[in-house]
Every structure is written in structure tokens, then in C-alpha cells.
Amino acid sequence: MISQIFILSSKGDHLIYKDFRGEASKDSINVFYEMVTALSGDQPPVVMTHKDLHFIHVRQGGLYWVASTKTNPSPFTIIEFLNRLAALTKDYCGSLSEKSVRMNFALIYELLDEMVDFGYVQTTSTDILKNFIQTEAVSSKPFSLFDLSNVGLFGAETQQSKVAPSVAASRPIMSSRGEQGGKNEIFVDVIERLSVVIGSNGVLMKSDIQGEIRIKCFLPTCSEMRIGLNEELNIGKSQLKGYSSAVRVDECRFHQAVKLDEFDTFRILKVCPSQGEQTIMQYQLCDELPCAPPFQLFPSVEKDYVNRVLIFLKLRCDLPPKSTALNVSITVPVPKGSVSMSQELSSPDQTAELQPKNKALLWEIPRFPGGAQLSALFNVML
């Protein structure tokens, strides 16, 4: 059972606090934040204990979603609940950020009242909760073409598009009382995250693709939806067949609501999506990319003086001109004795920082158009 639920900002500000059983004091919030910030590394343990109080947390949207308990429940159950709470907050508030939580605190408290009773989880179903939630969401901000979290998701077009972008990525699933019902829309997106290791000679050494098919549904009720995938899709290396250029993934998993009776034969997914955002399929492909990687890196490293290393990186995006890569990050190993760094970047929206603990420098590019070429010069002092 859950004693407390609270949401904290990355700086430790108290955004939401709900005590269900009165077993722990409110000081437990400060205790948790001190424990998290005192740990070294970017990934603190999900479960921590202070005296007889257990803290279980996840981090989403730059916020800490925390549950405390004095009993010994299944940590995976609490983690799943916290992830579901974050997803429901995004569905009902439109976006997941500190600002949206502050502006919709009444709505989040109403969600918690319906989801948890005296520490016991009652429901996390959108279809059930929508019958009881009465508070209207307050939009944190209007849609912006320069908001990188929304571009390319759920009908939000890139800047090159000639049509007006959709606000579906940041729109709450419940329409306000003043509207004559919201738009009856459903969006399907394929999101892929590519991680590669490139040698100092520019040769691709290792690659990994993690993808997912995500649905955002604004329909009050939705009948069965059929999603047809490529019929040449093969799962695992042992299933390659025929002479055609097959589409292969190493492994995949599906949402529990997906019906797979036609998947093996026709590669068709059948699902009755509920309101909100949900991932219906996740897949992974390692080592063998089906085509050339979308980026080419040309590195150059030279030692200038005894205590200085010059690193020059040229990065080319081979995507089509109408496509854009978002949130590109390049991690470069540096010598153990690196103490400071100066840099020259090709555009002002890029950032770079030296991470001595990780013995690496991090170069981040928020937006990388197809066909473009960027460069960076790093002067690392040893």
C-alpha cells in the first residue's frame, strides 16, 4: 500500500503532495530529495530506504514522481503505477512539465483522489476516470513550431510543411465545457531512437535502434482499429525468407490490449485504443542496420602542447532535406586528466560541456536538418 505520493521539480520544489495514511511526516519529501541529490551519477536507484520508510520513484518530464510506503509491496507494481500516473497527467493536462503541473494542480489532485483510496490503487483506466474527472485542464502554452518536444509528433508538422501544424501533441484529451466537443481525431506515429558508436577513423563500430509505434486517441469511444505493417517484416535473424529485401527487427513486444491473431500471417495489429496516448508496439534492432546510418562523423584529434588536446568534429546529416533529426547528442571520450574545455560551435543553439567524472565531453544539437553539416572545435586542457 502507498503512504504518500508527491511530485518534485528537478530543483526540489514541492509541486504535488498527497498523504493517504498519515504514517509518515511531510519532512519525508526533503529526506528523499537530499538522498537523491547526495548520490553521484545521473541514475540514482529507483528504490531507496530511510529508516523504516521506502521511497520508490521514476523521473519523467524533468520531474520526480515519488511514492513512499512503510510496508513491503512489489516495487514493480508501484513503478508501473507511477508511470501510469505520469501518462495520465500528460493525457489530461496536454503536456508533461513543471509548468503544466503547477497550472493543473487541482486536476492532478482530483486524479489522485479517484485513483487511490487509503493507499490502495483503485484504477488507472482512462475510460473509467473520464466519468469522474470534472476539472478542466489549463493549457500551459500555445503550440509553437520551435517547441522541439512537439515537432513531428501526432500531426505536428516540421517548419518545411505548407500546412498549419496540429496542436494534438500538447492537447488535453478532455475538451473544455465551452467547446462543442473536441475534434474526433486519432494519430499514429513511429518514433525511433538511434545509438551508434563510431571509431576515431569514422567507421561504424556498433549500432542500436529502439523504436515504438505510438497512438494518441481523442475519440470518446473507438471501435477496433487495424494497423497493417510491412508484410515482409521478419522478427529475429532465423526468420529471413525469400529473395526480397525484408524488413527485420531483432525483437518486439506489444501492448496487452493488442490482438495478434492476424499478426503472424498478415502482419496486422488489432487494437481498440482508449482515449489518450499509448504505445502499442516496441521493437529493437542491433548491430546490423538495414541501410547506411543517417549521420556521418569525420573526427580529427591532435595534441597541440603537452597539456592540450584539439578535437575537431564534422557531422553530416544524410536524411532527406524535408526531414529533421531532433535532440542529437554526441559523446566523445577524453583523457582522464581533462580539467577544462573551450569550444567553437557552428550555431548558437548547440551546447557542449566537459564531464570529467565520465571522462567525456557532450555535444548536443537540438535540431539537425537533413542535408546539413555541422562542425565543432574543442580545446581540452589536461
Core attributes:
4-stranded antiparallel sheet; 5-stranded antiparallel sheet; AP_mu_sigma_su; globular; mainly beta; single chain; 6 helices; AP-4 complex subunit mu-1 isoform X1; coated pit; about 375 residues
Question: Would you mind describing this structure in some detail?
Answer:
It holds the Pfam family Clat_adaptor_s. One of its GO terms (cellular component) is clathrin adaptor complex. Its main location: membrane. Belongs to the adaptor complexes medium subunit family. This is AP-4 complex subunit mu-1 isoform X1. Mean pLDDT is 85; it is low at 142-151 and 156-165. The protein starts with a strand and ends with a strand. The chain has helices at 28-38, 75-93, 98-103, 105-115, 126-129, 263-266; strands spanning 4-8, 14-19, 47-50, 53-60, 63-69, 116-117, 120-121, 186-198, 204-217, 225-228, 233-235, 247-249, 251-254, 268-271, 276-286, 295-305, 308-317, 324-333, 340-345, 351-355, 360-369, 373-381. The strands form 7 sheets. The protein has a 5-stranded antiparallel beta sheet, with helices on both faces. The chain has a 4-stranded antiparallel beta sheet with strand order 8-9-15-13, with helices on one face. The protein is built from 6 helices and 22 strands. The chain is mainly beta and 382 residues long. Helix 2 crosses helix 4 (105-115). A hairpin with a 2-residue loop joins strand 6 and strand 7.
